[in-house]
Amino acid sequence: MCLVSCSNSKLQAVLATLTLGRPVAAVRDREEGLPWSVAMSNCNLVPVGQSPWKPAPSCPACSNPYSPTPPIVHQVRIQCTHPSQTSVVQVAIIVQGINDNSPVFGQEQYLLSLPELSPQGTVVDIVEATDLDGDVLFYHIDPENEFFAIKSVNFPDVVVRKAIDYDVVKRVSFKLIVVDTRSTSPPTVPSHSATATINIDILDVDNRPPWFQPCTEVTVGSNSKVCLGSGYTGRVNLTEKTEGILPLEPGPVFAIDGDKGKNELITYRILSGNEAKIFHLDENTGNIMMLKAADVSGPVVLTVLAVQLVNSDQYATTSVTFDVVIKSQHPPQFNKQQYEGFVSSEAGPNSLVMQDDSLNRPLRVQAEDADFLDGVNPAVRYEFQDGSDFTVTNEGFVLLRTAVSPGTVSVQIQAVDTTNGEFAEATVSVLVLPGATTAMPTTAMETTDIPTTAMATTDIPTTRHANHRHANC
Ligand SMILES: [Ca+2]
Ligand SMILES: [Ca+2]
Ligand SMILES: [Ca+2]
Ligand SMILES: [Ca+2]
């Protein structure tokens, strides 16, 4: 026979009462409400110690499939002696655990880490709880999230559901909840639970090269990112060595690690374009200085490398273009401070403004640069103040931008040397004639093309030569 006792039964608690002369099979657990009469006054109770346990079909408590450890079984031999008869019975007392302990996590908070872009299925860690009752434990996370899950309800392995980009997500937090019973609704048995907070820091991986600054980040595919820059430009004077760090546009040569969380140190090097050894680049700062003067005008294009000190497979290149220009000693100068022009009010956009009221010679503004033999600096550009009704070609011809009403319009015009920013200013006054009294050339033109018919009476050069007249020449 078997008797079942709870693990926390008090000492000397009565489990059941045996009556002499009754069949052994009739013994029942006291808790089943079948009291037995006491007739054991002259019986000897002899414990014989523990014995190997074998589940008995008649003992449901002995075969709990969720019990991780077998109940403890005590076996005793009971001998009852009476003047008329002697009886012996073997009794197995099974000590069964009850669920009176909560599961416990080792810590309230767990700080885990995971390299970014770890693939789906990667196990971050196993966060297990313990339960003194030895109950089977059931886990779930809250809130459920797109990045992490647990392996299964009984196995709290924290696994990756979706690869994470460090630039997008740097930490994920959720609660891990454990319950020591299978959940039923409504609950049918006592249940205990525990909660731990899981914080997972995403670690930056060195998967990106240096990015020259400034640059514009562009996402490629789902997780890849590149940063687009446009290179650097500078200007130096022909035959003149500039002292100090050369200023560049849009800023100094500078790169940062595309992995902002790693921010590896970067060094710089000129890969090509410096065969004449005019320039020196500081490998730590990226600053560029001159070692000697450039003796040939025109652009010098340096290819500059930025490479990580650690993991030199991560590198990037950019261009630094220096314009070697002739040093200006004279700013441009208009040949007049005040220009006068004429145009019909019936003239449409792109019509030429003429230089006299007979309207047969186009107006042309001209600025000369005394640094050039013929006075023509090919880098000079003309421009009207913003919002003007007129535009001007590189050759200085003035065009209508919009229709204008009769009257006089005065606007400021500038001649700018685009190599050094030097400029001159003049005024253009245009008399807009009533349409009925004038006859304008009807050919509309693009702002950069001058019709040959319009120029027939002018002395516009057909070819420009940058005949330089440098002060030293
Ligand atoms: Ca428990
Ligand atoms: Ca990274
Ligand atoms: Ca990197
Ligand atoms: Ca000049």
Automatic annotation (TrEMBL):
Keywords: Calcium, Membrane, Repeat. This is Cadherin domain-containing protein. It is found in: Membrane. PROSITE patterns: CADHERIN_2 (PS50268). Its main location: membrane. GO terms for molecular function: beta-catenin binding; cadherin binding; calcium ion binding. GO terms for biological process: adherens junction organization; calcium-dependent cell-cell adhesion via plasma membrane cell adhesion molecules; cell migration; cell morphogenesis; cell-cell adhesion mediated by cadherin; cell-cell junction assembly; homophilic cell adhesion via plasma membrane adhesion molecules. SUPFAM superfamilies: Cadherin-like. Pfam families: Cadherin. The lineage of its organism: Eukaryota, Metazoa, Chordata, Craniata, Vertebrata. Residues 106-212, 230-334 form the Cadherin domain. InterPro entries: Cadherin, Cadherin-like_dom, Cadherin-like_sf. GO terms for cellular component: adherens junction; catenin complex.
